[in-house]
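Whiteboard transcription, Tuesday session. T.W. wrote the structure tokens on the left side:
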């Protein structure tokens, strides 16, 4: 029998066609028992119903997406996102998520001051970490591809994520997501993964399409693009990571339009192939 015990599917992969309960049921029906949960989708059904459905289907929650966006120079907006992140930490605890994925945020509106945005995010992290520690939830910094630095994440590389963790002197309450889509291009990726040893909380897979039409929402299925996923998987394993390989595909033009059962079946087939 094929072994899918390390396969997880992030709910973003079936974002539009399945609600949270449909996704839990759908993944379980296809023999996948680990998933990442999207915050908006959890809020549609509520924590209690989600918890019930997760338990009924023996579903492990790998990660909860997302918290963060703490780069705003406007104190009120900064505070709003800080409070949202606090709430996301509490929800992650309630659904037993392995970690809360932390996305840094881009430049505040009208700003050209990237160093200030980064410094602001570090301040926000310092402020939120005690809450994460108390809740027993780890924050997982996800460096995102530099093409989306302006509007989504001023945290772009594994080196930077490690620098931030070092600067904060954080313990296990702060770790890293290695997402192949965001790190594959980096000439220092190998060193970045080595340096992340003991800090990798989540490993996301998909592919970079040669003819990509959108910086965020046109990801490919593993094997359809140019990323040497297997090599990166071996690097994270060499760094001590032994957890799930989580399929996370944002795909406006293709996968979000397909029947989710078919998407899951294809993801499983690729998982078993030699691309991962
Ligand atoms: Zn990811």
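and on the right, the sequence the group agreed on:
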């Amino acid at each position: 029998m094929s072994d899918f015990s390390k396969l997880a599917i992030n709910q973003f992969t079936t974002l539009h066609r399945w609600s949270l309960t449909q996704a839990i049921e759908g993944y379980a029906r296809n023999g996948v028992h680990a998933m990442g949960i999207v915050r908006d989708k959890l809020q549609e059904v509520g924590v209690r119903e989600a918890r019930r459905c997760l338990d009924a289907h023996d579903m492990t929650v790998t990660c909860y997406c997302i918290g963060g966006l703490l780069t705003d120079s406007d104190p009120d907006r900064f505070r709003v996102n800080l409070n949202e992140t606090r709430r996301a930490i509490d929800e992650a605890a309630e659904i037993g998520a392995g970690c809360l994925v932390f996305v840094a945020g881009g430049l505040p509106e009208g700003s050209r001051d990237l160093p200030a945005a980064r410094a602001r995010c570090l301040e926000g992290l310092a402020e939120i970490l005690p809450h994460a520690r108390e809740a027993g939830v780890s924050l997982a910094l996800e460096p995102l591809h530099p093409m989306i630095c302006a509007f989504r994440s001023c945290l772009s590389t594994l080196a930077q994520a490690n620098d931030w963790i070092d600067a904060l002197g954080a313990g296990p309450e702060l770790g890293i997501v290695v997402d192949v889509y965001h790190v594959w291009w980096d000439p220092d990726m190998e060193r970045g993964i080595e340096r992340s040893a003991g800090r990798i909380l989540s490993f996301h897979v998909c592919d970079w399409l040669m003819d990509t039409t959108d910086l965020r929402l046109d990801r490919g299925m593993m094997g359809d693009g140019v990323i040497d996923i297997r090599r990166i998987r071996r690097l994270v394993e060499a760094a001590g990571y032994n957890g799930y390989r989580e399929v996370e595909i944002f795909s406006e033009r293709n996968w979000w339009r397909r029947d989710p059962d078919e998407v899951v079946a294809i993801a499983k087939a690729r998982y078993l192939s030699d691309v991962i």
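Someone added at the bottom: The chain has ten helices and eight strands.
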